[in-house]
Amino acid sequence: MKTKYKRQYNAVITGTGMYVPEKILDNKYFESIVDTTDEWIKTRTGIEERRILENGATSDMATKAVEDLLQNTGTNPEDIDAIIVATVTPDMFFPATACLVQDNIGAKKAWGFDLSAACSGFLYALQTGAGLIEGGQFKKVVVVGADKMSSIVDYTDRKTCIIFGDGAAAVLLEPSEDLSYGIHDSILVCDGSGRDKLFMEGGGSLNPPSHETVDKRMHYLFQDGKAVFKVAVQQMADVSAEILEKNGLTGDDIAYLVPHQANLRIIDATARRMGISSDKVMINIQKYGNTTAATIPLCLAEYHKDGKLKKGDKLVLAAFGGGYTFGSMLLTWGID
Ligand code: COA
């Protein structure tokens, strides 16, 4: 007989933390290094400035974001069970960035790992963390989205260098027996047919580092912007509309859409498709650009800090990124 799985716990976000580097690169700066204009960047992407980490690596930003989270929630690092870091710019291939964060914050009892899903990384990591909580074995899981995109961006390529920035943000997941709060549902997809549209081909086992890979600029991110735009605008909107339908909801039931911040035009199309007005869309792309795995948690942390989220708010998180990877998630905010 088929038995329907009934969850005992929901994973609830019980705290947020964030870190962005101090150094700001505005659009005017890009006018001085590539053939572009402030006007083009603003109208085509919505970006006005982005943050750049001058010294240090992704783990340093991730550590600061988690320290902010620990302070905001009054959490003892020794009580953390697991740390998941979503990133495509780990400090090194190994050890995992999560191990470095674990050591930096003194989370002596935690295990952890990195998760690579580009701009959908945080969504994938949040679902993974939720699974750990729902299983009942782990009580405090830290999920981080962190990327130092400036380490893989080619600052001679005007099509990509204007888009990306550096940043990190984190959330704490804990169990709730009240299933009306927390993560209810997600739709997560990967489609490797997009492998040649958004990638970094150098440095891995396919193209180990060599003089040739450096000469061919293979250690930089490559994006076929037009192709990615077309798929992103369709898939992020589809998957966001689908999670509403699947759960018998409409845009009116949603307090906020929390979209990956890649391009304001993609965000607008997603909101329109869901029937969500622009005042209910979390936006900070103008300040930070595309920070890859950090965009969604940065939105959550900022809106939370500014008191714009209230207990019971229904949120839809949505992302699209390299892989291709994409997805949406429905959750109810559980913090007073
Ligand atoms: N400044 C001025 N002109 C630029 C430019 C820049 N920074 N970058 C590109 N252009 C030019 C192009 O060379 C092209 O010129 P041409 O017509 O003479 O060839 C023209 O602008 C249009 O280029 P196009 O690539 O069609 O621009 P776009 O409107 O699609 O915007 C992106 C480019 C990258 C902003 C956009 O494609 C995009 O956001 N893509 C998806 C990003 C995304 O979602 N990624 C997934 C997650 S990371």
Structure summary, number of beta strands: 13
Cofactors and ligands = coenzyme A
Structural class: alpha/beta
By CATH, the superfamily of the largest domain comes out as Thiolase/Chalcone synthase
What is the H/E order?
EEHHEHEHEHEHEEEHEHEHHHEE
| CATH-scheme architecture of the largest domain | 3-Layer(aba) Sandwich
Distance from first to last alpha carbon: 41 Å
Largest sheet: 5 strands, mixed
Number of helices: 11
Q: Give the CATH class of the largest domain.
A: Alpha Beta
Shape: globular
Structural domain count: 2
Question: What percent of residues are in strands?
Answer: 15-25%
> Mind telling me the C-alpha Rg?
19 Å
What are the segments in which pLDDT stays under 50 over at least 5 consecutive residues?
none
CATH fold call of the largest domain: Peroxisomal Thiolase, Chain A, domain 1
Order of strands across the main sheet: 1-7-6-4-5
- Helical content band: 25-40%
Mean pLDDT: 97
Quick gist of this model?
It contains eleven helices and 13 strands.
Write up what this structure looks like.
The protein is α/β, with parallel strands linked by helices and 336 residues long. It has 2 domains: 10-176, Peroxisomal Thiolase, Chain A, domain 1, CATH 3.40.47; 182-332, 3-Layer(aba) Sandwich (Peroxisomal Thiolase, Chain A, domain 1), CATH 3.40.47. 33% of the residues lie in helices and 24% in strands. It has helices at residues 27-33, 38-45, 58-73, 97-105, 121-134, 158-161, 211-215, 225-246, 264-274, 285-288, 295-305; strands spanning 10-19, 23-26, 49-52, 82-86, 111-115, 141-148, 166-176, 182-190, 198-199, 222-223, 256-259, 314-321, 325-332. The longest helix has 22 residues, at 225-246. It is globular and about 55 Å long. The mean pLDDT is 97. Bound molecules: coenzyme A. Residues 36, 40-41, 44-45, 119, 158-159, 162, 225-226, 228-229, 232, 262-263, 266, 290, 320-321 line the site of coenzyme A. Coenzyme A binds next to helix 2, helix 6, helix 8 and strand 12.
